[in-house]
Amino acid sequence: MPAINAQKTFRHILDICLKDSNAYGNTYFARYFEWQGVCREQWFYRCVASDMLQSQGVFVTKCAHQDYAHETFPFQTVECHLNSFNVRACSFHLLFRFYVDGVLASTGFQQIVFASHDRKIIRLPKSVIEEIRLYEDAQFVPKG
Q1: Could you tell me if 105 and 78 are in contact, meaning their C-beta atoms sit under 8 angstroms apart?
Q2: What is the pLDDT of residues 36-59, one digit of tens each?
């Protein structure tokens, strides 16, 4: 696996089930977007703010992208590596790398914006930005 230029990398394990695949046994592409959401929520809950900042605002996914490098199949175990990049006052990007048996299967990213409950973009709390930056891979430049 390639070296990451971040202090920390969050890792989350996912198991591929039959429901995640088509008639040919390949994992549906859409599952990777679901897994991005699962990994993002687990990372934020476990590592950044267990209350998910619900009293202060909401997280809005502005964009999401996924590139596929290798097929996956039911009953394989997927390890997601999550890092942040392009951390700003009101938004940040998350990088997702999905591995099966140490082989990169897919890479994706999301841009996340923080907004008030009335959906106006607002600043993230400074302590949250500091925590997100611990996972930052400042050298990552997305394709697409």
Answers
A1: yes
A2: 999 999 999 999 999 999 999 999
In whole angstroms, how large is the CA radius of gyration of the chain?
16
The pairing of beta strand 58-68 with beta strand 103-115 = antiparallel
Q: What one-letter code names the amino acid at 129?
A: I
Task: Using CA atoms of 44, 49, 50, 53 in order, give the dihedral in degrees to the nearest 10.
Answer: -100
The count of other CB atoms within 10 Å of the CB of residue 74 is: 14
- For 38-119, strand residue ranges (E) read 58-68, 77-85, 91-100, 103-115
pTM of the model: 0.92
In Å, how far are 14, 81, 119 from 32, measured between CA atoms? 11, 13, 27
Cβ-based neighbours of 114, under 8 Å, separated by 6 or more: 53, 57, 58, 59, 60, 90, 91, 121, 122, 123, 124
Asked if 128 and 49 touch (Cβ cutoff 8 Å), the reply is yes
- DSSP helix/strand/coil, 86: coil
